[in-house]
Amino acid sequence: MPAHSLFLLFLLLSATHPCPLILTEAAGGRWQLLQKSIGITAMHMQLLNNDRVVIYDRTDFGRSNLSLPEGTCRHDPNELVLKTDCTAHSAEYDVLNNTFRPLMVLTDVWCSSGAVMSNGSLIQTGGFNDGDRRIRVFTPCSDCDWVEVGGAYCKKMGGKVVKNPTIPGGDPRSYPSTGSAVLLPLKNLQGTELEAEVLVCGGAPKGSYIQATKGDFVKALDTCGRIKITDSNPQWAMESMPYARVMGDMILLPNGNVLIVNGAGAGSAGWELGRNPALNPVIYRPDGKAGSRFESQNPTTIPRMYHSTAILLRDGRVLVGGSNPHVDYNFTTPLFPTELRLEAFSPPYLDTENNNLRPKIVSPSSKATIGYAKKLVVRFQVGGTLAEKLVSVTMVSPSFTTHSFSMNHRLLFLGNGEKVTNAGTATYDIQVTTPPSKNLAPSGYYLLFVVHQDIPSEGIWVQIR
Fold this sequence. Notes:
Residues 43-150, 160-349 form the Glyoxal oxidase N-terminal domain. This protein has helices at residues 3-15, 208-213, and strands at 22-24, 30-35, 44-47, 52-56, 74-75, 84-85, 90-94, 99-103, 113-116, 122-125, 135-138, 147-148, 180-183, 197-201, 223-228, 236-240, 249-252, 258-261, 264-267, 274-277, 282-284, 294-296, 308-312, 318-322, 342-346, 360-363, 368-370, 375-381, 391-397, 400-402, 405-407, 410-414, 420-424, 427-433, 444-452, 455-456, 460-464.
């Protein structure tokens, strides 16, 4: 067998076999190396309801480090580098088994968007070059692959622009001074007036991009702003983070806190323009006292610069991948090589010392279907002493994440002060009310958690419709 064929076979076999886990443990969260290489860099990620993560990268730079199955190649006459390419630019990661397999994406999906439809399928739109007006669908199953349903779609649909007050300081928060943003948890869902509040963190001062191209890497922003967009006269409330950060990711955790992770402490987004990796995640507690809402976490050893991603998993961990600030894959010469490793961050609520307080959902069963504005009884178990007034139920929509933004990401607290009743030995029921409409919770699959003293259960999948 030719040498290049043996190499391709090795890559394919590596993709279908599990990788031993490597743990870094300490108080303040724990990092876990899941895969030393998945063969592609995780520029885009989406968790689906079969506990598998669809990952994809650009196609226009040439070969990746992950082979397609034998005899399978991409043939795209419009591709910029390789018209025929027998390597994969997408992969599916199996969370439960810690394995991955190559997927076939045909046209370029660089810097694209995505959303999970109500039936659980991922619809992905846009990209670059011949992929910029394409639509692709991925259905969750054991051996499914991308289906390109292509054809033009209208790029401009009109709409409404709401102008809120300029964030204090006047510094930009969008590319290339990339900050991140998240819709804070929605509460009091049955109330007559619902509050919606947005948190924006990080970015880079004006001119940082131009300065970085000249070799001057300006310190990133260390500020966050909160604004209640439902107020009649919304105003920004500013706070300071423990670290400056540009190109960070913000993830809603099951208990309603926010994890801020990835990015750099200086420079800007763009090719090779970031410096000082932001290795320490930060947990932000929205309901905490102003001035004490941030808590620094243990650092990773892997810089996650431009083109990094992070998403919430059903077990409460956060999957982290990506980082490729280069036009192509470069592993040898740059300050921050192309990154193919996958790791997971376990927030402190997953520490083993919390096991006795951690809820375990008994019912409903995973994949249960729920309706709108309905009473829902959630049965759960807690091994230790239960603090009844510190029990809540949350629903989280898994995000499509790329370029420091988690699309479609929201968390809803179900109910308000519902009573917990005893249902047997160390077993309890809590009755909550599901969201009242699709305006608050678009139909589809969500992760449902029971949270006790800020410690979440493992989630279950529910479909609301």
